[in-house]
């Protein structure tokens, strides 16, 4: 399947999930993340979920990271430049939804991309070699390409991988792992 077909398929599959399904699977995903060998890292980038899109609820991951005294980084997107600015999430960080219902920090302490050790990546679909399908705006491919080569890229999904994404581009950045409620896929 190509990216367009996969976007349609997985948006539809997500819409069939109940709030309860999302909460249970999101908690299971957070528990599965505990099995990854990433806890010696310091700066963890976490996306804040778009509830309307029924994304993985990362609140459980935020609690894990806070409990382990990790530095948590969240982003704000500029839809004109397709750039993301990264901010440290603190008790004083004000979060506001933008025009696309994406929760974002209003402002704060900026964190340079090269400092980020681990990125939890939102996605609609992924395949068995770590290619991902997002919403098609290219924000995460641009961001991930600016990260250090050692930065660990972890997709979060409610679903199992597709066999193959037919229209992968040269600039698409592959995941290192994808975590589901029951499995860790290593690429």
From TrEMBL:
Where along the chain is ATP bound?
3-7, 132-140
Annotated residues that bind substrate are located at: 50, 55
Q: Which UniProt keywords apply?
A: ATP-binding, Ligase, Magnesium, Metal-binding, Nucleotide-binding
E.C. code:
6.3.3.2
The answer to keyword GTP-binding applying to this record is no
Q: Name one Pfam family in it.
A: 5-FTHF_cyc-lig
What is a biological process (GO) this protein takes part in?
tetrahydrofolate interconversion
Show the GO MF annotations: 5-formyltetrahydrofolate cyclo-ligase activity; ATP binding; metal ion binding
For this chain, the family text in UniProt reads:
Belongs to the 5-formyltetrahydrofolate cyclo-ligase family.
Q: What is this protein called?
A: 5-formyltetrahydrofolate cyclo-ligase
Instruction: Identify the species of origin.
Output: Flavobacterium swingsii
